[in-house]
Amino acid sequence: MIAFEDLPAGRIIPLGDLVVDREDMLDFARRFDPQPFHLDDEAAKTSIFGGLSASGWYTASLWMRRWVDVILADSTSQGSPGGRELSWLTPVYPGDRLTFEAEVLSARRSKKRPELGLVEFEGRARRDTRLVYRFIATGMFTARDAIPGRDEAER
């Protein structure tokens, strides 16, 4: 189980990669971001993107799914108080291979709730070496010594 202590400042966490699926991308756009350049090939050709492009929120969702699969699903995560500096730096297109990672920028114990650690991280997605998405957020993780049910011998 991943706890606060496993996320020190400077740690870079590879989150894997995937190929952007056209139908999945279109499904997302229909439901959550139905702008013409996310839905219609012809409209997208005349947009600044030059072709059908993914919603930035779709790209963020792909990153989040990888974060959950690699880190949060087996962790002491207690949620997040939020983030900042969300950027979609270049369009994402169907068939693009994206590589995801997170870098821990800082990690400290909460002053008000010392059983919690606050982990500030930068989430990133790249196509080849080009950064296409980034944001900074804070996650809250229970410290290992505060996990309920652990007896003293395990600490």
Give a quick summary of the entry:
By secondary structure, the chain is of the alpha+beta class. The protein contains 4 helices and 5 strands, in the order βααααββββ. The protein is elongated, with a radius of gyration of 18 Å.
Q: Can you put this structure into words, describing what you see?
A:
By secondary structure, this protein is α+β, with helices and mostly antiparallel strands. The protein has a single domain (4-21, 54-154), classed as Thiol Ester Dehydrase, Chain A (Roll). It has 4 helices and 5 strands, in the order E-H-H-H-H-E-E-E-E. It has helices at residues 22-32, 36-39, 41-45, 56-70, and strands at residues 12-19, 82-88, 97-109, 116-127, 130-142. A 5-stranded antiparallel sheet has the order 1-3-4-5-2, with helices on one face. Strand 3 and strand 4 form a beta hairpin. The longest helix is centred in the middle third of the chain and has 15 residues, at 56-70. The two termini are 14 Å apart. The mean pLDDT is 95.
How would you describe this structure in keywords?
155 residues; alpha+beta; Thiol Ester Dehydrase, Chain A; five-stranded antiparallel β-sheet; 4 helices; 5 strands
Shape descriptor: elongated
What is the CATH T-level topology? Thiol Ester Dehydrase, Chain A
Assigned CATH class: Alpha Beta
Low-pLDDT sequence parts: none
Helical amount: 10-25%
Strand order of the largest sheet: 1-3-4-5-2
Number of helical segments with 4 or more residues = 4
What's the domain count? 1
Mean pLDDT: 95
Question: What's the CATH architecture name?
Answer: Roll
Decide which structural class fits the backbone.
Answer: alpha+beta
The separation of the N and C termini measures 14 Å
- What would you give as the CATH superfamily? Hotdog Thioesterase
What is the strand tally? 5
Strand content: 25-35%
Cα-atom Rg, whole angstroms?
18 Å
